[in-house]
Amino acid sequence: MLKQKRCLYPIVLGLAGITLVALVLISGCTPPKVAPSGFLSNYGKLRQDPVDKEAQWWEMKGIQWHKYRKLILDPVETRIDQSKAERKMTQEEIDNLANHLRQTVINEMQDVYPVVDKPGADVLRIRAALTHLKPVSGALNVITTAVLFMPVDVGEAAIEVQFLDSQNNVILSELIMSSRGSMMDVTGVWTRWAQVESTFKEWAKKLKAALDEATGAGQ
């Protein structure tokens, strides 16, 4: 009887491992839920994007997007509640990531939408705030890879964005993006901020694609 129980141990452990992996895979497909920070004007207007599960947005009716050909990008604010953070970060890390995000957007946009510092009839102002950050634990992923043959810890980030007419500061649109990294990103699951920085690049590409479609600049 004892031998039979011992023989069952590997099976039980194997089933437990499969269950854990399945749960992690399911959670990895879902963007993190982040409480509103107070940065936006009206969270009740936001609606889930029908295509992009990471995005919620709203825009004012009748916007003439096609007239906006330049951008003012305000410094990215940070509204992260460290007391509720799953993993501790330094304020220096948070500030550096905010600067990195702004520069990532500039790099993606500037060839089509020059970044300027003065309002104008053709200038769109963008304000943004980082509201959630979670770094990867490389040490944890080393352990889970040894036990489960795969990393399970991924990075997370969320942002709130306002789009305004630069001349009168009327809010034209508001957006929330909330993203979770992928366990399939084998190059990003070992270093602390690699997945978050990759997320910033994806956000910048999505923003440019949306502006291209709205303004016709990409045609």
CATH class division = Alpha Beta
Shape: elongated
Q: pLDDT average, as an integer? A: 85
* Percent of residues in β-strands: 15-25%
What share of residues is helical?
25-40%
What about the largest sheet? Answer: 7 strands, mixed
Low-confidence stretches: 1-28
SSE order, one letter for each helix or strand: HEEEEHEHEEH
Span between termini: 73 Å
Rg, Å, rounded: 21 Å
Structural class: alpha/beta
Estimate nothing, just give the exact number of structural domains: 1
Describe, in short, the structure shown.
The protein is an alpha/beta fold and 219 residues long. It has helices at residues 2-28, 91-109, 138-148, 194-215, and strands at residues 47-48, 55-59, 70-73, 77-78, 123-134, 156-165, 171-180. The protein has a single domain, classed as 3-Layer(aba) Sandwich (Rossmann fold).
What does this protein look like?
The protein is an alpha/beta fold and 219 residues long. It has a single domain (31-215), classed as Rossmann fold, CATH 3.40.50. The protein contains 4 helices and 7 strands; from the N terminus they run H-E-E-E-E-H-E-H-E-E-H. It has helices at 2-28, 91-109, 138-148, 194-215, and strands at 47-48, 55-59, 70-73, 77-78, 123-134, 156-165, 171-180. Strands 1, 2, 3, 4, 5, 6 and 7 form a 7-stranded mixed sheet that branches. The longest helix is centred in the first third of the chain and has 27 residues, at 2-28. It is elongated, with a radius of gyration of 21 Å. The relative contact order is 0.18.
